Amino acid sequence: MDSRIQRIFLTLCLTSVFIMSPDAFAQAKTAFDSPAESGESREPSNKPQDIYNPELERQKIDEALIDDEDFELGLFFGTLSIEDFGASELYGLRFNYFINEDFFVQANAGSAKAGLSSAEQLFPGNAVISNDKDYQYYDVNLGWNVLPGEAFLGDDIAVNTSFYFVLGAGTTSFLDNKEFTLVYGAGYRALINDWLAFSVDTRNHRFNTEYPAGEVKATHNLEFSMSLSVFF
Questions:
Q1: pLDDT averaged over the chain?
Q2: Strands 157-174 and 62-63, how do they pair?
Q3: Per CATH, the architecture of 62-231 is what?
Q4: 131-153 confidence digits (pLDDT tens)
Q5: Among 110, 28, 113, which Cα is nearest to 76's?
Q6: How many CB atoms lie within 10 A of CB 112?
Q7: Is the dihedral of CA 71, 199, 88, 211 positive or negative?
Q8: pLDDT band for position 123 (50/70/90)?
Q9: Of the residues 37, 71, 118, 224, which has the fewest C-beta atoms closer than 10 A?
C-alpha cells in the first residue's frame, strides 16, 4: 500500500515539473535524440554560406560623344516664307560656339530670292515694287539645350540628341532696305558620330517693312531648315 502511494506521488511530481517548465521537456527530448533520428548534422550552425554572384554580360553601345570640340560649322537649306511674297528656297551658313553643355552662341547668314507679291499677282505691271528681291539676313543668337537625351536606331545604335531654343537679333536686307530683326525659334540636333551632326530648325524673323506706298508694318517670316555640320 505504501509503495503504491509513493509511485503515485512520484508520478504527480514529475508531471508537474514538465508542465511548469516546457523547455526542460524539449531539452530532455533533444538529449535522447540521436543524430541519425533527427537527420541533422552536428556541425556548427554559423558556417558561412556561398554567395551567388551572377555573371552579367554588359551590352556595349557606341555612343556619339563630343570630345572637347567647342565649335560647330555647318551648311543649312530649307524654306523661308516671306510675308506677302510666298515661300522661297533658303540656304546659308551656321556657326555655333558651345559655352558649356547647356548654352551656346550661334551666328547665321542666310539668303533667299523672293517671288511675286500679292499686289504684283493681282495687278501685273502696275505694282511699284523694287526689282531687288534678294532676301539676306545675318543674326546672332543665344541657344539653350533644354532637353538633352538619346535616340535609338534599332537595337545596337544610340545617338546623342538635344532639343534647344534660340533667341537673338540681327539685320535683314530686303527691298533696298536694311531692317533690325528679332529672331526666335527652336531646333533638334542629333549627333551622328563624334564630329558630325544633323539638325532641324524652325524660327521666325520679325522686322518692320516699309512698302513703296509709305505703309510700315511688322512682318513675320517663318523659316524651316535642315543642316549638316561638323565639330572641331
A1: 80
A2: parallel
A3: Beta Barrel (2.40)
A4: 678 999 999 999 999 988 888 87
A5: 110
A6: 25
A7: negative
A8: confident
A9: 37
For residue 125, which amino acid is it?
G
The grid coordinates listed for 93 are 551658313
Return the closest-CA partner of residue 181 out of 130, 95, 110, 87. Answer: 110
Give the DSSP per-residue string, the chain.
Answer: -HHHHHHHHHHHHHHHHHHH-HHHHHHHHHHH--HHHHT---S-TTPPPPPP-----PPP-EE----S--EEEEEEEEEEEETTTEEEEEEEEEEEEESSSSEEEEEEEEEEE----HHHHHSTTTS---S--EEEEEEEEEEEEEEEEEEEETTTEEEEEEEEEEEEEEEEEETTEEEEEEEEEEEEEEESSSSEEEEEEEEEEEEEEE-TTS-EEEEEEEEEEEEEEEE-
Residues 222, 201 contacting (CB under 8 angstroms): no
Taken as a whole, the chain contains a residue count of 232
pLDDT at 116: 82
Q: What are the domain boundaries of the chain?
A: 2-34, 62-231
